[in-house]
Amino acid sequence: MSIDLQQDYFELFGLQRRFQLDETALELAYHDLQGRVHPDRYAHLPDTEKRLSMQWATRVNEAFRMLRKPLTRATYLLELCGVDAGLHTNTAMSPAFLMEQMEWREGVEEARSAGDADELTQLHQRLRQHAREVFEELARQFDEQQDYAGAAETIRRLMFMEKLQQEIDDALEALET
């Protein structure tokens, strides 16, 4: 078993370096690789082989966790392209997006204060639909336009939306208890 740590996660799974990927192919490749490098298969071998197996298994698990979620996959793609997404340092967002976020948050707060689970559920569904549209935009930016600066901004927007989605989930959960 040889480890090529220069291989990126897409290469590791035999996938094209794209945002849109075949999730079934990713799952199949993951299970195939995991089966080949699982430490239990090397338990009877010398310590060096056991360590190599553990390193490979860890790398395969890391790669799978990174690629299976769209936001982490997008961030990883930017990294591969040498683009700093500025996720923790660049908080500049367009005024229109910030206004939209304020409106979403006001709607959530009003529904939460009123104890209106139906309204929170509707907000949840609308936000999920909106996120799907933004993810489609992100796919175009990566796979068609190679607009990595635009993709970085879109990722930051999606992170805001993900946080808002969690707030809605938390509000719904609080109403259930």
Describe the structure.
The structure is a single chain. By secondary structure, the protein is mainly α. It has seven helices and no strands. The longest helix has 29 residues, at 148-176. The chain is globular, with a radius of gyration of 20 Å.
Please indicate the percent range of residues in DSSP E strands (runs of 2 or more): under 5%
Topology as a string of helices (H) and strands (E): HHHHHHH
Q: End-to-end distance, in Å?
A: 52 Å
User: In total, how many beta strands?
Assistant: 0
Label the structural class. mainly alpha
User: Runs with pLDDT <50, length 5+?
Assistant: none
Radius of gyration in whole Å, from Cα?
20 Å
User: What does the overall shape look like?
Assistant: globular
Q: Share of helix among residues? A: over 70%
Oligomer: single chain
Number of helices: 7
